[in-house]
Amino acid sequence: MYSVIAAALVGVATASSLSSLCTTDYVTSVLPTSSDDIPSGITIDTSSVTASIYRNYSVTGATFWEDMTINFCEVSFAYNHQNGDDRVVVQYWMPSPDVFANRFLATGGAAYTINNGSGGADMAGGVAYGAATGYTDGGFPYWGGTDFDDVVLLGNGTANWPAIYNWGYQAIAEMTQIGKAFTSNFFSLGTSTTNTTKLYSYFMGCSEGGREAISQAQRAPELYDGIVAGAPAMRYGQQQVNHIASPVQIQTMGYYPPSCVFDTVINATINACDGLDGKVDGVVARSDLCFLNFNVSSMLGQTYSCAAGSTSSLGLGYGKKRKRQSTSATPAQNGTINAQDIAVIQDLLTGLKDSNGDLVYFPFQPTAGFGDTTVWDSTTESWTITNPNSNGEWVTKFLHWQNVSSLDLTGVTNDDLKAWMIEGMTLYMDSLQTTLPDLTPFYSKGGRLLHYHGEADSSVPPTGSIHYHESVRKIMYPSLSFEEGNTQLNEWYRFYLVPGAAHCAINDEQPNAGFPRDNFEHMIQWVEEDVVPITINSTVQSGALEGEVQKLCTWPARPYWTDNGTMVCEENASSVSAMLWNLTAYKMPVY
Ligand SMILES: *[C@@H]1O[C@H](CO)[C@@H](O)[C@H](O)[C@H]1NC(C)=O
Ligand SMILES: *[C@@H]1O[C@H](CO)[C@@H](O)[C@H](O)[C@H]1NC(C)=O
Ligand SMILES: *[C@@H]1O[C@H](CO)[C@@H](O)[C@H](O)[C@H]1NC(C)=O
Ligand SMILES: *[C@@H]1O[C@H](CO)[C@@H](O)[C@H](O)[C@H]1NC(C)=O
Ligand SMILES: *[C@@H]1O[C@H](CO)[C@@H](O)[C@H](O)[C@H]1NC(C)=O
Ligand SMILES: *[C@@H]1O[C@H](CO)[C@@H](O)[C@H](O)[C@H]1NC(C)=O
Ligand SMILES: *[C@@H]1O[C@H](CO)[C@@H](O)[C@H](O)[C@H]1NC(C)=O
Ligand SMILES: *[C@@H]1O[C@H](CO)[C@@H](O)[C@H](O)[C@H]1NC(C)=O
Ligand SMILES: *[C@@H]1O[C@H](CO)[C@@H](O)[C@H](O)[C@H]1NC(C)=O
Ligand SMILES: *[C@@H]1O[C@H](CO)[C@@H](O)[C@H](O)[C@H]1NC(C)=O
Ligand SMILES: *[C@@H]1O[C@H](CO)[C@@H](O)[C@H](O)[C@H]1NC(C)=O
Ligand SMILES: *[C@@H]1O[C@H](CO)[C@@H](O)[C@H](O)[C@H]1NC(C)=O
Ligand SMILES: [Ca+2]
């Protein structure tokens, strides 16, 4: 809903038109300088400025935004760092002065890209709310088609540390700091000493963009009033290795269930758990109760049957449309679920464990699927593990520093994954790990954090988001109870599970589940009008209920539909504890 724009028009001071401002001369004349509080070591290349008008630019069918048609001036320029031979390109979409609403929205990336996440719609979405929006190429240069994993090494054995820190948090923070100063100048809001108009500043992103969001709350709190983080691929050392956990767990157990077993179990789980939330609608809104009440052992001896088809390795990215999928043919299958099938599935449902049985990383929720699992090997005519090459690259490139893009999983065990997780956490603690739990500077300056995660995400486990929320609660409110600490935290950092949603995407398997599309408006209202998002909107984007707006409860409350069909947000100790996992395999705390 874009209703807030009208209310904000009042604040606009100048009567300039977009076309009068959208020239390279004007843009060059208002580039920020060090007196605008941009980092002193940064030099903007004034000859690099571009400015182009886009009119009636429309975005339709974006998961994260309503359909929109906007006008804006696309500005870009490059800068470099003192004594560096680097070149970072930033781009800003400036709304027309008559709709500019004193807002700046910074946006990020997905998978291994630093920008253009959310299917490229965040830049436009911000403009629709009267925000100047920004993104950066991080110096890679992404605009030329380069992803971060292409530049993480300078060569075998040598990491590209400046690029790693840029990717970790620095490039986004610089883009925001420069972008805020540029926006103030562009719209003549006044200098940092004479200004009277508050420029509200936000960040939004999902997946890698969600990690970038959290990184900004941790590392650049002064730059933002409100941050929206979706399904953050944070706890990077663990998360990146976890992409290969399911196949390695299966290999460690030494038994390879046919793919039809996984498909059959997922369908049965969704059917069995649908009604536990009080409403039979094909959506499991209480995967916590599902975990507690649905015992996969009950499927022992059930028959399964699947037609010939194909399975895809998942790779990184959003929902089912992930990066670099590899596809294998699967034969027609039929059979009976046996005890070994059940044992593998129960192992996956309880997370990655080391050989002592201690928990190393979080499982996916029972309705999510299990990430990559098994494929048919037509040479040996047997089932084997998927080798999700693009995910193993983390180990070869980021841990072993070898310019090799695929990892041989032969002989790899759960204990190897644990060792790699600890190695990655240690190596990148200060750059990519993104788990600093003390957000006091962000809280103290009045920052607000809206964090959400799809409950049926099979790429980044939602209980990992809850674990971070819990870490912040325990570090910041150590003497308060779970209840009291969450009450304090909810004043400024709220977390929402999105029933049925996949990774930053809607979910084919639960088409009646909504996905939150009004997050920026909720955040604007929270920051600018102090309207606390007790529940947030989640819009159904497929199936028979398309267009329906559902409500999401703030964690630790969970939805339940009463006999008269009303949704209540209820809290139950056992269902909360079903989503709190204790990472007992580490000697150090893992936040
Ligand atoms: C943009 O759309 C409006 C309304 O449909 C139309 O009047 C205008 O001519 C369009 N402008 C351009 C540049 O296409
Ligand atoms: C951003 O993503 C959109 C949609 O995928 C694409 O059309 C556009 O070219 C991308 N822009 C950049 C700068 O990569
Ligand atoms: C890594 O290998 C690819 C080809 O496989 C090559 O294009 C690239 O330049 C190499 N990168 C480095 C840093 O050596
Ligand atoms: C880097 O190491 C990989 C694997 O060890 C090797 O295949 C490749 O040739 C090496 N590249 C260079 C430029 O030495
Ligand atoms: C105005 O200046 C203050 C103090 O320097 C700063 O915090 C604020 O962000 C500035 N606002 C704008 C609109 O530039
Ligand atoms: C699972 O359910 C989907 C429909 O949601 C169906 O297309 C698929 O064939 C089912 N798979 C199995 C193995 O039952
Ligand atoms: C699941 O059922 C099996 C077989 O009845 C039983 O042994 C096991 O304890 C049950 N697990 C849970 C978590 O209830
Ligand atoms: C099950 O599969 C076997 C061999 O793959 C085949 O011979 C048999 O006809 C199938 N049965 C059914 C009921 O599909
Ligand atoms: C939430 O959805 C309702 C119903 O569509 C709408 O009236 C309201 O404006 C939305 N709230 C926000 C913050 O977008
Ligand atoms: C539905 O039931 C809930 C409690 O179960 C009650 O609080 C609510 O008022 C009822 N709503 C209607 C419309 O009857
Ligand atoms: C969960 O808690 C609510 C109160 O928050 C209570 O009404 C309900 O009966 C509880 N449900 C279960 C399954 O314990
Ligand atoms: C987590 O495990 C540690 C070590 O075993 C234990 O001290 C702690 O009480 C556990 N916490 C929870 C919440 O279970
Ligand atoms: Ca349901």
From TrEMBL:
InterPro entries named in the record: AB_hydrolase_fold, Tannase/feruloyl_esterase
SUPFAM superfamilies: alpha/beta-Hydrolases
Keyword Calcium among UniProt keywords: yes
Pfam families associated with the record: Tannase
Signal peptide per UniProt: 1-15
Molecular functions (GO terms): feruloyl esterase activity; metal ion binding
Swiss-Prot/TrEMBL keywords: Calcium, Disulfide bond, Hydrolase, Metal-binding, Serine esterase, Signal
EC number, as in UniProt: 3.1.1.-
Family: Belongs to the tannase family.
This protein's name: Carboxylic ester hydrolase
Organism: Aspergillus saccharolyticus JOP 1030-1
Lineage of producing organism: Eukaryota, Fungi, Dikarya, Ascomycota, Pezizomycotina
